[in-house]
Amino acid sequence: MREESFDVVVIGAGLGGLSAAGYLSKAGKRVLVLEHHTVPGGYAHEFRRGRYRFEVALHAIDGLAPGGWAADILEELGVTSAVRFNRLDPFYTVQFPEHTITAHANVFRYEQELIRHFPHEAEGVRKLIDAMQQVYWDVQRFSIDGEMKRRPPMAGIPAAYSHMISAMGQSWGEFMDAYIADPQLRGVFSTLWGYYGLPPSRLNASTFILPWVSYHLFGAYYPEGGSMAMSRALEQTILAHGGEIRYRQTVNRIEIRDGKAVAVETEQGLRITADAVVSNANPKDVMLKFVGKEHLPSEYGEKIAGDAPAVSNLVLYLGLDRDIRAEGWPYHELFVAEDYDIEGDYAAVMAGDFDRAGMVITNYTESDPGCAPDGGSVLVAMTLAPWDYADQWGTGGDLTSYGKRPQYLELKQDAADRLLTRLEERLPGLRASIKHMEVATPLTNYRYSLNPGGSIYGSEQTVENMYMGRLSEKTPVDNLFLTGAWIIGGGMSAALLSGRSVARRVEGYLDPASDGAGGLLPDEDAPPATAEAVETSNEQAEKPSRESAGAPAAAVSPAASRLPGGSLTAAGSKREFQRHALPGPMLFVCHGENNTGAVAVVSEHVRAQIPDPAELLIASCVDLRHVPRMFRAIAQRAMGQAYEKTAELIPADLDPADHVIILPDWDGAVAKSLGFTDVSKEAGVGLVAADGRILGAAQGLDGVDALLQALRNEG
Ligand SMILES: Cc1cc2nc3c(=O)[nH]c(=O)nc-3n(C[C@H](O)[C@H](O)[C@H](O)COP(=O)(O)OP(=O)(O)OC[C@H]3O[C@@H](n4cnc5c(N)ncnc54)[C@H](O)[C@@H]3O)c2cc1C
Predict the structure, then answer these.
(1) Is the CB of residue 37 below 6 angstroms from any atom belonging to ligand 1?
(2) Residue 537: its pLDDT value, please?
(3) What is the 489 CA–ligand 1 centroid distance (Å)?
(4) Which of 315, 492, 496 to mutate to test the pocket of ligand 1 (most atoms within 8 A of CB)?
(5) What pLDDT is stored for residue 449 in this prediction?
(6) Which of 38, 39, 43 gets mutated to test ligand 1 (max ligand atoms within 8 A of its CB)?
(7) For position 398, what pLDDT does the model report?
(8) pTM for the complete prediction?
(9) Which of 127, 252, 298, 333 has a CA-to-CA distance to 618 between 20 and 30 Å?
(10) How far apart are the CA of 497 and the centre of ligand 1, in A?
(11) Residue with CA at minimum distance from ligand 1 atom 45
(12) Across 225-239, 595-609, 697-711, which has the greatest mean pLDDT?
C-alpha cells in the first residue's frame, strides 16, 4: 500500500467535496481529493455520444444572482470568471389537465398568472408568497447574525426568527393550509415538489420554501457547458492552489486511533494520512463501514442506519436529429402532471407507475445551444423513481454486473418506452428522430455516485429530518467532517454552500485561532443552551462564588406534594431515574442557560457537608420547556458530550454516573412541580425524597442550607 500525507483529505468530488477542497486549498492547506469516478462533479457532470453532450442532472441552479446564497461561492472559487450562467426566462411551464401555467422569471408575473387561473384564491396566493419571503429573510438574517456572532441565546431564537422556526417545524402541506384551499391550486403551487422528492404532507416546509423563493425571486440559472463546466472550473481552482484530485480512487477504510481519523485507504491501494478528513460520500458507508460502528456512540450509528435515502429517478436522454426548437417547441423546462393530487403522484412514483408519475421534459438545446449539432436537439425526460421497483429492478439486490442482465435490461427498456410514449404524444414522430438514447435508472445513479438507493437528495427531507434533525457536518470523530446533500439537503447550490460551511469548520479545527464561522445552516455548536450550560458550570467549578450565582433565597411553595410520576433519563450516562423510586434523596438544581454556575456552586457547598452521593444525589436539572422540538436532538447530543467531558474529570475510583447527573427537563415538569415558574435568571433548588415527595424548595442558592436541614429532619 502506497502511503502519502496531506493536511486534509476529501472523500468524493461531488459539488460539496469540490467546494470544500476549493476553500481549503485557497486557505493554504495541502488538500487531496479522492474520487471514485473518472471525472469531478458527482451528479454535476456530463457524458457524450457522438456530437451530442448530455447533462446528467442539472435543470436549473438557484442562488446565483447578486446576494444569492451561492453567488459569492462561485465568485470566490473562480467559477463565474470561467463559466457563463444564463438566467432562465421563463423558469418553467407546467401542464396540468385544465391549466397550463408559466413560471415567469418575474415573480409578480407568475403571481398574476396564478391569480388569473385561480381568481377566487387571489388573496391567499399573495399572502402565501409574502409568507414564504418572510421565511427566506429570516433564514438569511439568521445566517448573517451567526457570522456576526450576534444571534440571541437559544431561548430568544424562536422569537427573533419566528417565520423560520415555524416553517422548519411543519410540512409544506401544513404551511399552505393557512393560505390556500383549492386542491388544484395546491397542486399547481407545489409543482417543484420533485426537486425535493417528497409530497406536501411529508416535505419540510422550509425545504420547499427557501429554494422556491431563491428560484422565483432571484432567478433560475443554467451554465453554458452544463454543470460539468462548473465542476471543471472548481477542479481548476483546487489545482491552481496546489490541491490534487485523484480519480478512480474508491475509499473503503478510515483508520481511527484515539478518537481521531489518522488515515484514509482506498480499494486501489492508497493510504493517505491527514490532519483532517472531509467526506462528501454518503454517511452510511463512511461512518458505518469505513469508520465502523465500534467507534461511534450507539445513537449516532442508529441515526445514520435509520436515515431513509431520498427518492431516486429514471432519466431518458435523447439525442435527436431534428431541431425541436426551430419547429416551435417553446419550452426549456416543461413539467407534465397527470393530476393535481401530489400525494397521488408520489404514490405513483413509489409504485413505479411511469405512465402516471409526473414527468419533466427539458430541451437542453434551448438553455445550452452547444450541446447538440446543428439541426439536432438534446431532449431529456425525467421522473422520480423508486430503488425498490420490481425487486430492485430485477436484480434481487445483487448488483454484480447488473447492467448486462436481461431482466434489468427489459425493465429499463419498458420504463423508457412508457416515458417515450408520453413524450411522443407531445412530439409526434419522436421515435423516428432518435440518434442516441441512454436510460439511467436508480441503479445507474448508485453505480456512479455510490449514493444508497440511488438517492438524488441525500436522506429524505422530511419535517423531522431537516436542519437540526439532520446529520451534522461534525461527527463524533473529532477531525472527520461531512458535507453534501446528506448534510444540508439536496440541490447543487446547497451542496456548494455545505462545502464552504465545512471548510470553515475544518479551518477552525486546524487553526483554532481562525474564525470558523458557519454558513447558512444553524451552527449546532452555538445555540444549545444546555451544552454551554454544563460547560460553563465546569469552568465555574474551579472558582465558585455564591454571590455571583444568585440572589438571596426565597422559600418557594411547591406546586405539588410529589414530583409527577414517570422517569427522567440522564444525558450521557443514560441512567434512568424513576421519579417515585429514586436511588435516595435528591437535590434538583433547576436552571436555565444563563445561570449555569448554580450547579457547581451548589455541588461544592453541599459536598463539603455531605460528600457521599449515596446520602444525597445532586442533579443539574435543565429546564428545556422553551426549546423548540426541532432543536431537541441537538440539545440532547450536546448534553451527552458535556457529560463525557465532565466525567473525565471524575477520579477513576468513583462512578461518574453518581457525580455527573444532567437531567433534561423537557417539559419543565420537575421545575413546575417544585413551584418554579422561571429558573432562567435565578436557579431553583428542590429537595426530593426517594419516593418522590417534595421536602422543600427555594429560589436562590442561600436556601440550600435550609434544605439540608430539612434532609436531616427527614432522618
Ligand atoms: C437527474 C438529477 C437531476 C437533478 N436536478 C437538479 C437540478 O436541476 N438542480 C439542482 O440544484 N439539483 C439537482 N439535482 C440534485 C443535485 O445534483 C445533488 O443534490 C447534488 O449535486 C449533490 O451533491 P453532493 O455534494 O451531495 O455530491 P454527489 O453528487 O452525491 O457526489 C458524491 C461524490 O462522492 C463520490 N464518492 C462516493 N463514495 C465514494 C468513495 N467511497 N470513495 C471516493 N469517492 C466516493 C461519488 O463518486 C461522487 O462523485 C439533480 C440530481 C439528479 C441525479
Answers:
(1) yes
(2) 33
(3) 11
(4) 492
(5) 97
(6) 43
(7) 96
(8) 0.80
(9) 298
(10) 14
(11) 12
(12) 225-239
User: Please, which residues bridge with residue 171 across strands?
Assistant: 204
Taking the C-alpha atoms of residue 587 and residue 603, their distance in angstroms, rounded to an integer, is 10
User: What's the pLDDT at 680?
Assistant: 82
Which 3 state secondary structure label does DSSP give 635?
A: helix
Q: What pLDDT score does 146 carry?
A: 87
Q: Is 449 in the pocket of ligand 1 (CB under 6 A)?
A: yes
For residues 479 and 508, the answer to whether their CB atoms sit within 8 Å is no
CA–CA gap between residue 411 and residue 398 (Å, rounded): 16
Query: Going by CATH, does the domain composed of 2-85+223-306+460-510 fall within 3.40.50.300?
Result: no
What is the CA(44)–ligand 1 centre distance, in A? 6
What Rg value do the Cα atoms of the chain yield, rounded?
28
Q: Is the dihedral of CA 455, 459, 494, 334 positive or negative?
A: positive
Share of the chain above pLDDT 70, in %: 94
Among 139-148, 209-218, 586-595, the range scoring the smallest mean pLDDT is: 586-595
Answer whether 281 contacts ligand 1 (Cβ < 6 A): yes
Q: Could you tell me the strand order of the sheet in which 684-688 lies?
A: 554-555, 694-699, 684-688, 586-591, 617-623, 662-665
For range 318-345, the mean pLDDT: 96
pLDDT of 447 above 50:
yes
- Residue 296 zone, left/alpha/beta (φ > 0; ψ -120 to 50; rest): beta
Please tell me the CATH superfamily of domain 529-714, with its number.
Glutaredoxin (3.40.30.10)
Q: Closest residue (by CA) to atom 10 of ligand 1?
A: 491
pLDDT score, position 81: 96
Which distant-in-sequence residues (6+ apart) come within 8 Å of 26 by Cβ?
76, 77, 237, 241
Can you tell me the distance from the alpha carbon of 46 to that of 436, in angstroms, rounded to the nearest whole number? Answer: 15
Domain residues of the chain, as ranges? 2-85+223-306+460-510, 105-217, 311-454, 529-714
Tell me the pLDDT tens digit for each residue of 578-602. Answer: 999 999 999 999 988 667 778 888 9
